[in-house]
Specification:
With 539 residues, this protein is of the alpha/beta class. The protein has two domains: 226 residues, Anaerobic Ribonucleotide-triphosphate Reductase Large Chain (Alpha-Beta Barrel), CATH 3.20.70.20; 179 residues, no CATH class. 40% of the residues lie in helices and 16% in strands. The strands form four sheets. It has an eight-stranded mixed beta sheet with strand order 9-2-3-4-5-6-15-14. The protein has a five-stranded antiparallel beta sheet with strand order 16-12-13-17-18. α1 crosses α16. The chain is globular and about 65 Å long.
Length: 539
């Protein structure tokens, strides 16, 4: 890459496929389209500077901004945060909201803890409740058949509190039988239980009180729930834990990727990410935090919402989700270990000032002040376009194969991490750098860094800790549980992914040497074989 505006082959392909209008719009035109519609009508004096920041890929708005800005249905905020009441009207109302949300391009997160357990008596009909898990599966199946905004797979999250009577059934929801696993391995779109939904056990202050106090009435329950969840995390990758304690108590509603949190039903995400790999100084970081915060605030005025209750909650809370990406690359190019770092902390001191900027511009525009302003999203396709590491994650691996859907066909490309390539160009072995793959055997390092970063983030952090396959882990369930418990109260959530835990996983680690001659070649999956798309694959 010779300059900030020159895209690599994968970044170009993803951008053209997902965000370029009609596949003909160029990146600078996209930046102008987004800023001209979202920011220029409200804060015109900042618009040109913001446009250049996006062109330079130092700040990238969330994918919905890139996709929807300027369109008739300009819903540039995504991911709804929902709860459901324990009534017929509650069930029906949830299905209305999730259908409207998914069809407009929003992901959804739903907390089901208010619902009575399976088998509970229903006074009105004299029957028995089917419980929260039945409704979760209804929502999951809705997502299977609703492509978000008519274009992409639905993103769904489900949460249930640790002390709900159905929690153990919830924990075991993704214990797929061998036949289901085999079908999923052969065809990623093959149906499986809750396969379109990420699930988390919700932990609150009461959980930690019960867990730590042997005399507490729920002491044994807390330990049983924790141990069972940890065992499943290490085998199947789910459930994760969602943590809402202390000043965050009650903020258990989450978006699909769990980084935005709320106490209020019908809240909505508003996301964008600063790209640390392209920001050159603390002073530039400070300016970009101000610009990006102002941009997201304008987005809360510009964006449509899928139904009126969302607008009411947004007007009250006006949550912003200014995030980070390129954190892993920031470490890698400086030769630093993936760990709490004093130099990075100085940059994050500037990031924390987003709340001050939000209040300033909210007062200037005469709107409600945002209750919170920072959330680190995974920024999947956006980080590919930015050609940097995703969210707060370390470099996944120097090279990997990435699977993705192209119409009705599954294809893959070899990908060399941009930071890894820059290291290789400098004569540095990319395999010598901390990556998610190499850190998999030492989860404490990942947890320590996430807990440190969380001190700068007022919402949550979406981060998945990669682990070895269950038979290759160098720690027992009990040892991992003890490590995790040492950090858990300081996190907002945690998800892990043991290698191979789900059939058809989208990323497979390969060596740098294997990938370097195949970059840019799109290969179609044909059963267990492959075929190049649109050309000859021979090197």
């Amino acid at each position: 890459m010779t300059n900030a505006n020159e895209f690599g082959s994968l970044a170009e392909a993803i951008y053209k496929q997902k965000y370029s209008l009609d596949g003909r719009e160029e990146w600078a035109d996209t930046a102008r389209r987004v800023v001209d519609h979202v920011m220029r009508p409200y804060l015109p004096e900042l618009a040109d500077e913001m446009t250049q920041a996006i062109i330079d890929r130092k700040f990238l708005p969330g994918g919905r901004y890139l996709f929807a800005a300027g369109k008739q249905l300009h819903q540039t905020q995504n991911c709804l945060l929902l709860s459901v009441e324990d009534s017929r009207e509650g069930w029906a109302g949830l299905m209305r909201r999730i259908t409207s949300g998914l069809m407009s391009g929003a992901g959804i997160g739903v907390v089901y803890s208010k619902l009575r357990p399976k088998g509970a008596y229903i006074n009105g009909t004299g029957g028995e409740s089917t419980g929260p898990i039945a409704l979760m599966q209804m929502v999951n199946e809705s997502g299977r058949h609703i492509r978000q905004g008519g274009a992409r797979r639905s993103a769904i999250w489900a949460g249930l509190h640790w002390n709900h009577p159905d929690v153990f059934e919830f924990i075991r929801l993704k214990d797929w039988p061998d036949a289901m696993k085999a079908a999923k391995e052969a065809d990623f779109d093959a149906p499986a239980t809750m396969d379109g939904t990420n699930i988390s056990v919700i932990l609150d202050d009461l959980f930690f009180e019960a867990y730590q106090d042997p005399d507490h009435a729920d002491h044994q329950l807390a330990h049983d729930v924790y141990d069972e969840t940890v065992r499943h995390m290490l085998e199947t990758g789910e459930p994760g834990f969602s943590v809402d304690v202390g000043v965050n108590a009650g903020e258990h509603l989450r978006n699909a990727c769990t980084e935005v949190t709320s106490r209020d039903d019908n809240d909505i995400c508003n996301l964008g990410s600063l790209n640390l790999s392209r920001i050159e100084s603390r002073e530039e970081m400070a300016r970009l935090v101000e610009l990006s915060t102002a941009f997201l605030l304008c987005g809360s005025l510009y964006s449509l919402v899928p139904y009126k209750e969302v607008d009411e909650t947004r007007t009250k809370n006006r949550r912003l989700g200014l995030g980070l990406m390129g954190v892993g690359e920031w470490y890698a190019v400086r030769g630093k270990p993936y760990a709490p770092d004093e130099d990075l902390g100085e940059w994050l001191d500037e990031y924390e000032k987003s709340g001050e900027y939000a209040n300033h511009y909210a007062d200037r525009l005469g709107v409600s002040r945002p209750v919170k302003t920072r959330a680190i999203a995974p920024a999947g396709t956006i980080s590919i376009i930015a050609e940097t590491t995703s969210g707060m994650e370390p470099m996944f691996a120097p090279a990997y194969k990435r699977r993705y859907a192209k119409g009705d066909t599954w294809v893959y490309q070899y990908v060399i991490d941009s930071a890894a390539q820059r290291l290789a160009d400098r004569g540095i072995d990319p395999d010598s750098v901390d990556s998610a793959y190499t850190l998999a055997q030492d989860p404490a390092k990942r947890l320590r860094t996430q807990a440190w970063l969380q001190t700068y983030v007022d919402h949550g952090i979406s981060s998945t800790i990669n682990l070895p396959a269950p038979m290759e882990q160098n720690f027992t369930d009990e040892e991992f549980g003890q490590i995790l418990m040492g950090y858990l109260p300081y996190l907002r959530g945690i998800t892990v992914y043991p290698d191979g835990a789900r059939g058809g996983q989208p990323l497979t680690v390969v060596s740098y040497a294997e990938a370097k001659d195949w970059v840019g070649v799109e290969i179609e999956e044909v059963g267990n074989e492959s075929a190049c798309v649109g050309g000859v694959c021979g090197i």
